[in-house]
Amino acid sequence: MSLEIIFEDEYLLCVTKPNNVLTHHAFHSRNVADEDSLLQIIQKERGLKVYPVHRLDRKTSGIMMLAKETRFVSKFQELFTNKEIQKTYFGIVRGFSPETRTIDSPVKGRDGKIHKEALTELKTLETVLLNIPVKPYDSSRYSFVELAPKTGRMHQLRVHTNKISHPLIGDSKYGDKNHNVMFDENFGCKNLFLHAGKLEFINPFTSEKIILKATFPKDWIALFEKFSWRNPLI
What we know:
This protein has 234 residues and is an alpha+beta fold. The chain has helices at residues 38-46, 70-81, 156-163, 177-187, 218-227, and strands at residues 4-8, 12-17, 51-52, 61-67, 85-94, 100-103, 107-108, 115-116, 120-130, 140-149, 194-202, 209-213.
């Protein structure tokens, strides 16, 4: 696997994480021998030991910021904590989603017990109506959305899109199985359609404004062409 390097300086390495790749293995993970984590892939390809600044779900693709030394991590994490970083995700969801929507439903924290405040801004970029039946309808509708999370809860975007009845395609936990199967059978798409496409921030060490963009995976590009949707990252 050859990783796309988006940005690199003496403090940061920013790459595009593919779908279905773990950022790193949990301590004593049984899967260490079965699959390489993102950190292991970088170690093999670049000979670099790097340290994650933030999280991305295994199934989510897109930008990962990795610090080159442990002492740099906290400074970059402060950008997230202080809301000094602009995050833009993209998703494909079931149905015709609203033109714009603020979603503020609380989301469970990592302990799985306490719900915490969460905020996501949604904007619909494109829609498509397909003459492909999905029960109980004789056609199917989908929307291409831009998602701007203002908080960083676990599975926030997956939970929030489901909360407004427009779940992400390919989401086996919060999504719609019938529509997931349709995408698999008709388009050969099994992956979660959630992509961390853009990050904007001021580098705290250099004061440089950085705008990062992560190329969409191949299955997204194929659907853009099939549905005549514009690629917002070009």
